[in-house]
Design a protein that fits this description.
By secondary structure, the chain is α+β, with helices and mostly antiparallel strands. The chain has helices spanning 46-54, 58-79, 140-146, 152-160, 166-184, and strands spanning 7-10, 26-33, 88-90, 103-105, 111-117, 120-126, 130-136, 209-214, 220-227. A hairpin with a 5-residue loop joins strand 8 and strand 9.
């Protein structure tokens, strides 16, 4: 089965830095620590503000502003426009054709993906569809419970692991799976058990995609999936 190398361009942790160009076979990743960003609210569109206002917990609101403000600033730099001028659209769902597929920028000049977990935010930018995910290790009982919905081969791999290694392996698998499902636009509705990505040290081959584990701080796992298209 064909695989293609993916060059990961790791970038600075601030959306105000210069952005590296992305081309076929490359992905630019930005890892940002969540911080108060009051200016970000003024960059959001009406839908983003509605979602922010619907959040009840203050830490969730802080994380949302940091993540979406950072995304807008980075996209503005890639597109050569002001952050507040970035216009988001939704692509067609690959499963039903409805208008709730992958988020995209109008005109499709660059593809992007966003993920956040606890106090970290991961951004990915590429010239073809891309998905990223970063996840903090869950409690042991959570990984055991959720693992029951994974691909049959992944469930088998999980069962063979020593208990103390299961949370890390599960999180590694989950990040790969979410990155891929974000990239395709299916999201979790695509089903955790349909595509095999593996729990081993290297991700499994997924046809049509480069799936790669990327560096994350201790206690986290992260992955990126980029389409060959």
């Amino acid at each position: 089965m064909e695989t293609r190398p993916l060059q990961v361009l790791r970038s600075g942790a601030t959306p105000d830095s210069d952005v590296p160009p992305v081309s076929s076979g490359t992905v630019a990743l930005w890892l940002m620590k969540v911080a108060d960003d009051a200016d970000a609210y003024g960059l959001l569109d009406a839908e983003e503000r509605r979602r922010w206002k619907a959040l009840i917990r203050e830490d969730h609101r802080t994380r949302y502003l940091a993540a979406h403000g950072g995304l807008r600033r980075l996209l503005g730099r890639y597109l050569g426009i002001q952050a507040h001028e970035v216009t988001f659209v939704r692509e067609a769902c690959p499963r039903c054709g409805g208008p709730h597929g992958r988020p995209a920028v109008r005109g499709g000049k660059i593809h992007f993906s966003l993920s956040h977990s606890l106090d970290l935010v991961l951004f990915g930018f590429a010239s073809t569809p891309v998905g990223v995910d970063i996840e903090a290790y869950p409690e042991a009982e959570v990984s055991t419970s959720v693992a029951e919905g994974l691909h049959p081969l992944e469930r088998g791999e999980f069962a063979l692991l020593a208990p103390e290694t299961r949370p890390a392996a599960f999180t590694r698998c989950w990040a790969r799976k979410e990155a891929y499902l974000k990239g395709t636009g299916e999201g979790l509705a695509g089903g955790l058990g349909r595509t095999y990505v593996g729990m081993g040290q290297e991700p499994a081959t997924v046809p049509g995609w480069s799936l790669t584990d990327v560096w994350a701080p201790p206690g986290y796992a992260a992955a990126v999936a980029v389409s060959y298209q």
